[in-house]
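Tutorial, part two.
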Amino acid sequence: MFIGWDWATETHDVTVMDNSATRVARWEFAHTEEGIVRMLAKLAKYGDPADLPVAIETTRGLVVDRLLAAGHPVVPVHPNAFHAMRPRWGASKAKTDAGDSLKLADYLRTDGHFLPRLEPTERATMDLQALTRQRADHVEARIAAVNQLAALLDMHWPGGKAVFASLDSDIALAFLERYSTPASAAKLTAARLEAWCKRHSYTGKRSGSVLIERLRSAPKPASRLSETVVEQLVRVQVRLVGAIRTTVRTLDKAIADAVATHPYAPLFATMPRIGNVNLGQIIGELGPILERSRTSEQFIAETGVVPVTRASGKSRAVTFRYATNRRARLAIVTFADNSRHASDWAAKIYDGARAAKKRHPHAARILARAWLRVMWACWRDGTCYDPDTHQANNKINQTPEAPLAA
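Running the prediction step on this input gives:
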C-alpha cells in the first residue's frame, strides 16, 4: 500500500493506493486532534504502519512528526519536483486536493525507491536545533533593533550615537538609558563622563576627554520632536535592545548546557576554534543529515557545500547548490572560516583556493567540504577528532606531487 497525503493548514486529503495503481480509499478531514487520530486509526487498518509509506510535500511540521511517531515511513516530495511530474497524469496540469493526494500516492508507488525517507532524529539533537535556531532569530532581531536605535540617534541625537559606538555594549546602553537626549547630557564634562564610566566598570582605553570630544563634535540635530518624545523613543528602544541581549545570553547558557550532555559533542568538540554555539549549530543542523546519510558524498551534498554540474551537449556549467539546508551550510561554513585561523591544515586549503582565484565564499566552501570529510570519518568510526590521528597539521608538509584534501 502507498499513501499520498495532501496537507494544508485547515484540512488534509489522504489517498491509499495499492500496487496496481487502484485507489483503495480516500478521506478528507480537518486539521484537528480528533481528525488526525481518526486518520491514523484508519490507516492502521491497512497494515502495520512500518509497511505504509506516506508521501507528503514537506519535511517538517506537526503532521510529519505525528506520522513518524506512529511508525510510518515518511517520504518528503519537493513541491517543485512534484509540479514537474504533473504532465504524467494529464497535459492540463489540473490541481485539486483529492487529485494531489492520488498523484502523490502514485508517485510514491512508481518512484518511491529513488526518494529518501525521513528518520526520527534524537530528541537531544532536536533540542539543540531548536535552541540554536531561536538564538539565530534573536540575534537577527537584536541586529535589527540596534540598527533602529542607531537610526533614531542619527536623526535626533548624533552625539549620543558617537558615544554609543565608542563604548562597550552594556555600558553604551546604560549611558543612553541615563542620557537619552542632548539636553540631559548638556552638563557632562570629561571628568564626570570618565567617572561615570568607571562606576559602570568601563575597561576601554578611551579617556573621558576623548568621549566628550566625540559627543561635542557631532552635528547638532534639527529634530522637530519634543524633548519628552525623543527621550521616550530612545529609552524604549534601548530597553528593547537590552531585553533581546538578555534572551540571547539565556539561550547561550541553554545551548552550552545542552552541548555538554550531547553524545555527539565529544566527536567534534576538539576541532579548532569551535565554540559552544557553533558546536551546537553543527550538531543540531548536521546531526540529522549525518544520521540519514549513507556516504560522505551524500552528507556533503545535503549540507550544501558541493558544486552542481549541469552539462548538455556543448554547454557545461558548475553552479552553486541552492536546494539545501541553509542553516546547516551556514553552520559549517562559519566553522570552516574560523578554523583557518587556528589550523595550519585548514589555512593551507583556504589559501590554496584563494591562490586559484576563488572568492572568499567559494574558498570557505572548499574548506568546509574538507572538514565535512573529517566529520564523516569521526562519525563513522565513533572517534573524537584529534589533529595527530587525522594527520590534519601534517598534510601541509607533503610533497607537491601528493594530493591535497579539497
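Residues 227-261 form the longest helix (35 residues). In part three we will examine how such features are distributed along the chain.
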